[in-house]
């Protein structure tokens, strides 16, 4: 602001009647957005007109959002590290849409590179050992209807042909159970 005033004064003109007021608590930053269209030259004094908007609250909200995002990213990194160390992965199967989400470690357990491909129930079922498929999937409808938290031990066949034993603990949740707050 001072430099614009000084430049105008050096050009032989003076800015007059220009005020900028901010009310800030100590140690509070104030953000200001200013737009100033230039008016065509006219006789008389040079005028500099503009609009000033107090964006302090928006800036504070943006800063809080950035801090939350960083915190979420750090938590995600810690979760991924813990899963890797414990060799435990998680999965989510949306029974309405059929969408399946696997953590990076679940991909590794099943012999894939993390997020190598999208998973669907046909692909996952194909990875379950053929002798274990019927026992594993025949109870899903009943478990969902009753709302139990099943635990299944079964074999998987990795793309390399290697057979592994896994245990899958599941929970039946309605989408609102995870996303809605009472």
Word description of this protein:
The chain is an alpha+beta fold and 182 residues long. It has seven helices and six strands. The strands form three sheets. A two-stranded antiparallel ribbon has the order 1-2. It has a two-stranded antiparallel sheet with strand order 3-4.
Short description:
The protein has helices spanning 2-10, 56-86, 104-109, 121-127, 133-137, 140-146, 175-179; strands spanning 32-35, 51-54, 91-93, 100-102, 151-157, 163-169. With 182 residues, the chain is an alpha+beta fold.
Features:
alpha+beta, 182 residues, two-stranded antiparallel ribbon, 7 helices, 38% helix, two-stranded antiparallel sheet, 3 domains, Beta-Lactamase
Low-confidence stretches: 8-21, 26-36
| Mean pLDDT value | 78
Structural class: alpha+beta
Q: Report the principal-axis shape.
A: elongated
Total separate domains: 3
Into which percent range does the helicity of residues fall? 25-40%
Strand order of the largest sheet: 1-2
Strand content: 15-25%
What order do the SSEs take from the amino end to the carboxyl end, as H and E?
HEEHEEHHHHEEH
The CATH class name of the largest domain reads Alpha Beta
- Terminal CA distance reads 50 Å
Number of helices: 7
**Shape-level CATH architecture of the largest domain:** 2-Layer Sandwich
Major beta-sheet overview: 2 strands, antiparallel
Radius of gyration: 31 Å
- CATH homologous superfamily of the largest domain? PAS domain
Extended strand count: 6
């Amino acid at each position: 602001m001072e430099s614009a005033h000084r430049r105008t004064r050096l050009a032989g003109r003076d800015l007059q009647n220009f005020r900028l007021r901010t009310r800030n608590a100590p140690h509070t930053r104030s953000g200001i957005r200013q737009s100033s269209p230039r008016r065509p030259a006219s006789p008389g004094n040079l005028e500099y007109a503009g609009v000033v908007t107090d964006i302090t609250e928006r800036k504070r909200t943006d800063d809080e959002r950035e801090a939350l995002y960083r915190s979420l990213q750090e938590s995600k990194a810690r979760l991924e590290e813990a899963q890797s160390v414990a060799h435990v992965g998680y999965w989510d199967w949306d029974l309405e849409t059929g969408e399946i989400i696997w953590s990076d470690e679940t991909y590794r357990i099943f012999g894939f590179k993390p997020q190598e491909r999208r998973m669907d129930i046909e692909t996952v079922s194909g990875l379950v050992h053929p002798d274990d498929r019927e026992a594993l999937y025949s109870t899903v409808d009943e478990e969902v209807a009753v709302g139990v938290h099943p635990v299944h031990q079964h074999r998987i066949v990795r793309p390399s042909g290697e057979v592994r034993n896994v245990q899958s603990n599941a929970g039946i949740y309605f989408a609102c159970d995870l996303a809605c707050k009472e």
